[in-house]
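Slide 14.
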Amino acid sequence: MKFASEFRDPTAAKGLLAAIAHKADEIGATGEKPVHIMEICGGHTHSIFRYGLDKLIHEGIEFIHGPGCPVCVLPMSRVDECVEIAERPEVIFTTFGDAMRVPGHKKSLLQAKAAGADIRMVYSPLDALEIARRNPEREVVFFGLGFETTTPSTALSIQQAAREGLNNFSVFCNHITVPEPIKALLDDPHMVLDGFIGPGHVSMVIGVHPYDFIAADYGKPLVVAGFEPTDLLQSVLMVLTQIAEGRASVENQYARVVPEHGNPVSLAAIADVYERRPSFEWRGLGEIDASGLRIREAYRAFDAEEKFGIGYAAGPRDVPEIEGCACGQVMTGRIKPTACPQFGKGCTPEMPLGALMVSSEGACAAYWQYGGARVAAE
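Slide 15: predicted structure.
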């Protein structure tokens, strides 16, 4: 098995599209009365547009793009705090590349770097650890960002720093969790959602049971999915089958990668290093209880918020979004990217106004990358 070409087989895809069409007709899904399926993960959004699934699938299926892009949901105030830390002369600030161009209220990390701040792109928090070892006279800060997918690597790096006594290393922690914002969306009376395609990479860490409440409490089916075209099509078919049969459960289409109970080593590292914040601010969703992680007291020496007296350690900030930018509405599935008045005009990949246009998992970036000028014109 190559685990790629087999899941892009045109014959298999055509068969799944036909089965989806049959099931959609069975439940009465039409263009005027569609079944709304939210793909939570931004990686799924990009796959849908990369393979043209939104054009190929039955007209009665409408994909709703969810908040599964950690860069996109970060409020502008946290970007401002990154810049504030990075501009300190004693600091080497390290970050993943997709966060470099996310605009803050005044500037992005890339603009701060151009102005002289020592900001370095890394591929892993372990790279930041190595920079700390080589620069004992400098404070090295890693921008810890992401859902449960990237949380374990940051936790393991903090554990390693503690073992080595690397006191010049710290993490600006912005790790967040998936289930809590999904509950917030389901509690929103304006959201119309019939089912979910669950995130594959997050579920690889946490397993499938953290989503049980979606089926048990809200009666909505969720299918954890892979990222190839037949993965997504099979997952849509599984959601429709549940709807047709009048049931709601959590199913795992991505069983070749996602274990039922997650990764025990990763979960143990997360539990050791992190605890829940009382609340955390999300772009477009506001404050959500227990949706963010912070570093536990035992590892507080490696918490950049405490070390520099910034972020939640100094009290949350209220930084308004850029006027006319609809990132929050797009990110929560209320509108499509093309409904934003700035899409393709004031906001492009070259001159972005919002995170969704520059993140590798942003919905606006997906629309632009696979549609470009045609999408903007439409």
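Speaker note: The chain has three domains: 5-69+179-252, 76-176+292-313, 327-377.
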